[in-house]
Amino acid sequence: QVQLVESGGGSVQPGGSLRLSCAATGFTLDYYAIGWFRQAPGKEREELACISKSDGSASYADAVKGRFTIIRDKARNTVYLQMNSLKPEDTCIYYCHLINARGMSYWGEGTLVTVSS
Question: 10's torsion region: left (phi>0), alpha (psi -120 to 50) or beta?
Fold first, then answer.
């Protein structure tokens, strides 16, 4: 079964950190570019970070640049999103995503991050 599963969400105070995980079954994540997205209620899903399949280079949305880092762990077939200096506006459901060679899009079910004092 082909599946992406996000985990690591939770509640944290402003300024805190969380590390989200995107684990895969049925995929070898190293073969794909992987993206992290988030979506708040009533808003469109936005892309936060992407890591390439070729050289591991990463790109980030301006809203998270300098605070979030996308990391690929080949041994665990997992991609992480390290989130530091969290702000209340980072409260969202976070998703990982990939598109396979046939153009099929895969999403996990998401993990909720709440930033509040």
Answer: left
